[in-house]
From TrEMBL:
CDD domains: REC_citrate_TCS. This is Transcriptional regulatory protein. It comes from Pragia fontium DSM 5563 = ATCC 49100. The modification 4-aspartylphosphate is found at residue 56. It is found in: Cytoplasm.
Length: 229
């Protein structure tokens, strides 16, 4: 495995520190530096020669796309990942032309960033395998740039840890619970419990049915989908 020295160029210090804390957990990370503007970024690139640059576009002294263009001309040997609010097609297209490894739009999903780091690690592994490559190895290198083969990002409002807790509550295939039951059992609000239960139903992890009692409103009962076993 190639261990990466990483430079984050981001003027929002709390956000830069959040990026750094997340990236430091990755097994391929060796060192992380922070720069708050383009001038600092250029100086640190020349000094430290990072393997990977995490780059914002909107910076106090210019745009990150300008630095990316400079790196393209000077044959920078590392990779660049854009993490920015810039979503206009001109910026995205220019970043692709300049060889950016990935482009993530703020607010960034850290699951998505982890996928990118995994792809980068995989690319380095393929590159180290041999000096002469076969066609399938060339295809794999191109696919590492072009495709994300990891699990999809969770939708807004669904956290993986909470989702696992909700799913674990259905260990008994015969048991049926309402949203209120799950809320009490797990210490969640009823609204939150219902959101996760409906997500699990949409993903076919659970089945839902309406039970009509003699008194009161009908209840929506959730049960484990027997087909997942």
């Amino acid at each position: 495995m190639k261990y990466l020295n990483i430079l984050i160029i981001e003027d929002e210090t709390p956000l830069a520190e959040m990026h750094a804390e997340f990236i430091k957990r990755h097994s391929a990370c060796r060192q992380v530096w922070l720069a708050g503007n383009l001038e600092q970024g250029r100086m640190m690139i020349n000094t430290f020669k990072p393997d990977l640059i995490i780059l914002d576009n909107y910076l106090p002294d210019g745009k990150g796309i300008e630095l990316l263009q400079e790196l393209s001309v000077t044959k920078y040997h590392g990779e660049v990942i854009f993490i920015t609010a810039a979503s206009d097609i001109d910026t995205v297209s220019e970043a692709i032309r300049c060889g950016v490894f990935d482009y993530l739009i703020k607010p960034v999903s850290y699951d998505r960033l982890e996928q990118t780091l995994e792809r980068l690690s995989h690319l380095h592994k393929v590159q180290k395998q041999t000096e002469d490559v076969s066609q399938w190895q060339v295809d794999e290198m191109f696919n590492t740039f072009a495709r994300i083969q990891a699990k999809p990002t969770m939708p807004i409002g669904i956290d993986e840890i909470t989702l696992k807790v909700v799913q674990d509550a259905f260990s008994n295939i015969e048991a049926g619970y309402t949203a209120e039951d799950i809320a009490k059992k797990l210490g969640l609000s009823r609204t939150t419990a219902r959101r996760y239960l409906e997500f699990c139903t949409k993903e076919h992890f659970l089945q839902a049915e309406i039970i009509y009692g003699k008194v009161g409103r009908p209840q929506r009962i959730y049960r484990l989908n027997p087909q997942i076993n």
